[in-house]
Design goal:
It is built from seven helices and seven strands. It is globular and about 60 Å long. It is α+β, with helices and mostly antiparallel strands and 237 residues long. 35% of the residues lie in helices and 12% in strands. The strands form two sheets. It has a five-stranded antiparallel sheet, with no helix packed on it. It has a two-stranded antiparallel ribbon with strand order 2-3. Helix 1 (14-28) runs parallel beside helix 7.
Amino acid sequence: MSGGVDAQAGWAGVRERVIAVEEAQHQARGWGPPQHPVFEPALTAAEIAEVEAQYGVELPVEYRTFLAEVGAGGPGPEIELTSLRRVVGKWGWVWEGGDPILLDPSGPFVETEEWADQQLATLRAAGYEPTTRDEDEDYRHDYLEVFDDAEHRIWHEERDRGAILISDNGCGMTSCLIIVGPHRGELRDRDVGINPPYLPIVDAHGNRHNFRTWYLEWLERREREALGPEDGGPGSQ
């Protein structure tokens, strides 16, 4: 596991571009300049190493360099990124001022098409033979039978294992960044349903995004909407 920050960041000027968009939107709405810092402070190499040591993982390089060069939280697809903070001695991802969300690095992220099989394995490991699979909730009723009051926690911890909640997209839509497993560095979208599919986030050509391509695509769209070519957005002379 690397102890420093990769120098090949690719984030030059991004912080300033996002701040310019935020300021332009505030001005257009008559709000004046933003009253609070647009970004959380960037993390030092030592702080990023602390995060990785705490969880026993190496963060995807695109995200690690963002933390070091842009900020540990701030605007992002589609509303804001979760903020990586140290709270009571532990690092976690904070969303809307709630309790830190921790990464479970004990296994790879389970893709949607493999999720039912994962539930079966968990139930059978507990000595329980599952009943009929429910179309909407898979084996949630069996989890309740086996784990009782701990069912909700266990089911959701297993579903989110190996990934972090990376952004709030509004109306209960969220995105996660895969940290552990064969698709490490990719992103998945999901909604607030009890058993939502986790869908790969792709570009216009169907290519799966990593954190950098995902964030820059969002920023370029925001610049077109907020600034336009004549105001310094993409395509300006």
